[in-house]
Write a structure and sequence with these properties.
single chain, 224 residues, mainly beta, six-stranded antiparallel beta sheet
Length: 224
């Protein structure tokens, strides 16, 4: 890895906004294991252009026609339920924002890519009041950039073990698979504003293994 530009420990239940320039690499390390981070990404040149998980998980496949011509034809639009190494995180207007270049947890691709983040109303539905979720944390850290709470996109929640159970027709959250020191690396494909919430959920689920722990954030310069 090239020269380190930034290194900070993010305490539990807090957030941080970072500018990651094109070709720089952001590494998010789960220091103690089983901790989730919610990550919102904005084009730093246009904050209205922001992460789209729908576009990030969509792939166009090509298949060959059975006709004698043998010419390829587009198949149906396919949408994945996970992202992993090599996948590009796209924006609402198709801007490539960041590419996942490396992740160490096994199995790979265990991240949440298909729901909103936790928030006050989520906790109130369990009879818990006065608790701020990832939405409130991210709202606070992007406010200085003029971004309103209602303009925050769905986040990618790294290390969150969230999968579909076909038998119950429901999404299930279980303890993360990440171990101490596991990390994910994201290379910026354009200048990005990255807003990170160290998920505060230790009230109603095992999303963070039942306890909230610190994360390490590092930025490395572009490879020579």
């Amino acid at each position: 890895m090239s020269n380190e530009l930034f290194n900070e420990t993010l305490p539990p239940k807090t957030g941080r906004a970072l500018i990651v320039r094109k070709d720089e690499v952001l590494r998010i390390t789960d220091i103690e294991g089983q901790q989730v981070v919610d990550v919102a990404i904005f084009n730093a040149n246009n904050y209205r252009d922001r992460l789209s998980l729908s576009y990030s998980t969509t792939r166009y496949a090509m298949q060959f026609s059975a006709r004698r011509s043998g010419r390829p034809e587009p198949s149906v639009l396919m949408s994945k339920d996970y992202v992993t190494e090599g996948d590009v995180l796209m924006s609402t207007i198709y801007t490539p924002l960041m590419t996942i270049v490396r992740e160490t947890p096994e199995p790979k691709g265990v991240h949440k890519v298909n729901q909103r983040m936790c928030n006050r109303r989520f906790y109130e539905s369990f009879g818990l009041h006065g608790i701020e979720g990832c939405h409130e944390i991210i709202s606070g850290i992007v406010a200085p950039y003029g971004i309103r709470p209602e303009d925050i996109p769905d986040t990618i929640d790294f290390f969150m073990n969230y999968h579909h159970d076909c038998a119950s027709h429901a999404w299930v959250a279980e303890a993360p698979v990440s171990k101490p020191g596991d990390f994910v690396e994201l290379r910026a494909d354009t200048d990005c504003l990255v807003a990170i919430s160290n998920c505060p959920e230790d009230h109603v689920s095992m999303i963070n293994g039942g306890r909230c722990t610190p994360m390490r954030l590092q930025i490395f310069s572009a490879a020579a």
